[in-house]
Amino acid sequence: MTDPDRAEDSTDTVAEPPSDDRGYGFPVALWRGLDRHRPPGVTRIQRWRSPLRGLWLTSVFGSVLLVTLPIVIVTGLLSYIAYGPQFGQAIPGDVGFLKLPTFDWPTDPSWLYRLNQGLHVGLGLILIPLVLAKLWSVIPRLFAWPPSRSIAQVIERVSLLMLVGGILFEIVTGVLNIQYDYIFGFSFYTAHYFGAWVFIAGFVVHVAIKLPRMWQGLRSRSMREVMRTSVADTRPDPYEPDGLVSEDPAPATVSRRGALALVGGGTVLIAVLTAGQTLGGWTRHSALLLPRGRTRGDGPNDFQVNRTAFAARIDPKTTGDAWRLTLGGGPTPVVLDRAALSAMPQHTAVLPIACVEGWSTTETWTGVPLRELARLAGVPNPLSARVSSLERGGAFSRATLQANQVAHPDALLALRVNGVDLSPDHGFPARIIVPALPGVHNTKWVAAIAFEAGTT
Ligand SMILES: Nc1nc2c(c(=O)[nH]1)N[C@H]1C(S)=C(S)[C@@H](COP(=O)(O)O)O[C@H]1N2
Ligand SMILES: [Mo]
């Protein structure tokens, strides 16, 4: 730094009013330079004038998200584990240092994965209006200029970018997946998994930085007061430099109570339009936001179909009398036709199919327990079972089951559902159905099961 520079700096400091002394950190010249080179659009963006914007409203939205988003995060990570990364069948397979601890996904209660995915997808969708409201409430800060005044603030801004970018990315990829609309060139699961970690990192830093401020905000107004305040009596929060409150707030056109009702109403509307897919029964008719599961079968097979036999290119000739089931892993392969399977002792269990996309359906399945098939194959206590379908190619044509998933008495190779033969779309001649198994691993049109022998 040369003397003239310093001289200029000091003149500036003297010339500027104290309120403009912006508390720059190191390196001062950088932050000051940024401050002076304000991009043209910024001033316009900062002219948001809603008198509702302020620490209280942001803190209310933030506190609800603080409680609910961790549920979405945890159920998302659990779903990845439920897919069985230990068998290389979780997607993405190779996640480097972001590897999660794995454990054998339980088979009890049978509705565990249904609950997990219902929460993940259901809450994820329901929270969209709240996330948008939260973003709306802080929008002047997202475009704050200068973007930073110290290195510590750079970290905060980057975490904010990860948080906002991450959550919008997760919402978009999540919604597109449940709408079956793969418009991207990359795998949805891979994008959603890595996007989640970006979001989680941003979320953790943001919570750590903002928690005291949120607490302060929540206590700045009483909820009861807010609920009693009409539009006419709605006043802005006190102005603070660098805060959320506009320097020149417009008169209120809606009360804080009204804003909360609007956001609450939005979440309820989404809940009504989606919850039916998980809850079932008559509520399913209102699940209009979920195009999946509209293709259904007839009579007892009348429940949603993820992928039809036609779409999976199952040749009807291969599912008729020519069909055979091959049990491998024992001393010699065991080959059975459908009559032989039907002649074995049958077991009936009421079990849900719960798809990663959040929809689920509980039906009454009848077939041969997998552990009986393992015994027949000569592998009484298998470490795992590799199931393959008649379907060729695609991620859904095979699945590996854990030891506990084969051993459970209700884990079936189902031949029938609700008292009749499976329909072609539901996997005739035989399909897998295992308690609490992610839907995708309940392989349809099974052709072979290879049991992996244990050490005993
Ligand atoms: N062979 C095969 N099995 C499959 C599928 C598939 O596409 N092919 N879809 C899976 C998925 S993603 C789900 S959620 C369930 C859906 O079962 P359903 O169509 O009988 O309701 O089947 C699973 N089994
Ligand atoms: Mo699925």
TrEMBL record:
The keyword Cytoplasm does not apply. One of its GO terms (molecular function) is oxidoreductase activity. The chain crosses the membrane at residues 54-83, 119-139, 160-180, 186-209. Keywords: Membrane, Transmembrane, Transmembrane helix. PANTHER family: BLL0505 PROTEIN, PROTEIN-METHIONINE-SULFOXIDE REDUCTASE. InterPro entries: Mopterin_OxRdtase_euk, OxRdtase_Mopterin-bd_dom, OxRdtase_Mopterin-bd_sf. Gene3D superfamilies: Oxidoreductase, molybdopterin-binding domain. Residues 1-22 are annotated as: Disordered. Residues 317-452 form the Oxidoreductase molybdopterin-binding domain. Pfam families: Oxidored_molyb (PF00174). This is Oxidoreductase molybdopterin-binding domain-containing protein.
